[in-house]
Specification:
By secondary structure, the chain is an all-alpha fold. The chain contains 17 helices and two strands. A two-stranded antiparallel ribbon has the order 1-2.
Length: 391
């Protein structure tokens, strides 16, 4: 096996492994075939009495019954997910519905981001748009009233900001270029991702890490920092949409099938359906295979006038899955930054969960085209904070 083919094989595995971790740590372990230590029997075997023939027969019957039951459940799940998959495919063709209803993107948000991307940006132009977005105004006010950002009067009295207009002026345009994309992405996150409770936080942290990494890499690659940060933050809006879409569609289809089984007195099917829950493997497949293309369509729907995002997004989506013919040197500068930042964020997910070895990381960095200087820069980053400077 050549070095390039080994690098590609490892990169494909790491990409899938990181997406497994989005779903849950236990699911990622199962995909790797980890054996839980509680299942192992250490030391001498515990003496057990010999089973009677009648007990052996009963145990065999229970095992056969259990196997048959699980096969029935698997069959019911497969049928259910065929319907869900068909429904999701149809819904993904309706970008307007995903944009406005599934994710809940309000037109004022991309308008604000567009304004922040031009030299003529001003707080005055932003104020009426922010006033349209109650949630954004509330979040901005809450931010500037945090203890570390509160101003004090000449008499030493803490000044409380109580309107979005004051919060905008207090933060200033440079900070708003990072704050508003961050708050927008957080607002679009699903409210509940059960039965994958940590998925929401992982998606949020991933977007934050990608955006900060992109901002740090921008200067080294001749890219505007604000462009890199904003698009880095929006990069996985497709994952947000697919998570919302799958969980909502599963619930709707599942409830309908349970109702039909109950009304027709199909007891076995009804019992099997009640044991089903959203499938982690199905969701992982959606995120891995469709999120980048859906992100591209949603960002296209945002119809930015001044932010040059479409060509980089199309390149990013076309090369989202590791491929042998991917050559980062051929990418647009912003595409190259996005690819490296997003890939580094996936590395951080793997590293934080101890799911990557040093030699695997070296192959992954080589696949992404990350230089030693870039890796040194990223290693010094704080990915948990926007590092705002408020005078």
């Amino acid at each position: 096996m050549t070095d390039l083919s080994r690098q590609l094989r490892i990169s494909i595995a790491l990409n899938e492994r990181a997406h497994d971790l989005f779903i849950s740590h236990n699911f990622a372990q199962q995909q790797l075939g980890y054996i839980h230590t509680l299942d192992l029997n250490y030391g001498e075997k515990i003496p057990q009495r010999t089973m009677l023939e009648v007990e052996i027969a009963a145990a065999a019957k229970r095992k056969e019954s259990s196997t048959s039951h699980h096969k029935y459940i698997a069959k019911a799940s497969n049928h259910l997910h065929q319907i869900i998959e068909s429904s999701i495919q149809q819904q993904m063709d309706d970008i307007d519905n995903i944009y406005h209803e599934i994710v809940g993107i309000q037109d004022a948000v991309p308008t604000i981001l567009d304004i922040l991307g031009v030299k003529s940006a001003s707080v005055g132009r932003l104020e009426p748009l922010v006033n349209e977005l109650t949630w954004l105004g509330r979040d901005l006010v809450s931010l500037v009233n945090l203890p570390q950002y509160r101003k004090q009067s000449s008499k030493g009295v803490t000044v409380k900001v109580d309107t979005p207009a004051l919060a905008l002026r207090y933060l200033g345009l440079e900070n708003l270029q990072m704050v508003i994309p961050t708050f927008a992405m957080r607002h679009w996150m699903p409210h509940d991702t059960s039965p994958f409770p940590l998925l929401k936080r992982k998606l949020r942290d991933h977007s934050m890490t990608t955006a900060i990494a992109a901002k740090q890499l921008a200067e080294l690659n001749g890219v505007k920092e604000q462009h890199a940060f904003t698009l880095g933050m929006l990069l996985d809006v497709g994952k947000v949409a697919l998570t919302r879409l799958y969980l909502r569609t599963f619930e709707k289809v599942w409830q309908e099938k349970v109702r039909i089984a109950r009304d027709k007195s199909h007891k076995d099917l009804h019992s099997a359906l009640l044991e089903l829950s959203p499938d982690p493997l199905f969701l992982r497949g959606l995120l891995l295979n469709h999120s980048a293309n859906l992100s591209t369509k949603l960002i296209e729907k945002m119809a930015f006038r001044y932010l040059p995002f479409m060509a980089p997004m199309e390149e990013f989506a076309a090369n989202y899955l590791p491929q042998s013919h991917s050559q980062s040197a051929d990418y647009l500068p912003l595409s190259r930054v996005l690819r490296k930042a997003h890939g580094y964020s996936l590395y951080m997910i793997l590293k934080d969960n101890q799911f990557i070895e040093k030699d695997e990381a070296a192959h992954w960095f080589a696949h992404l085209g990350l230089s030693k200087e870039e890796l040194t820069t990223l290693a010094k980053c704080n990915f948990n904070s926007l590092q705002l400077t408020i005078l």
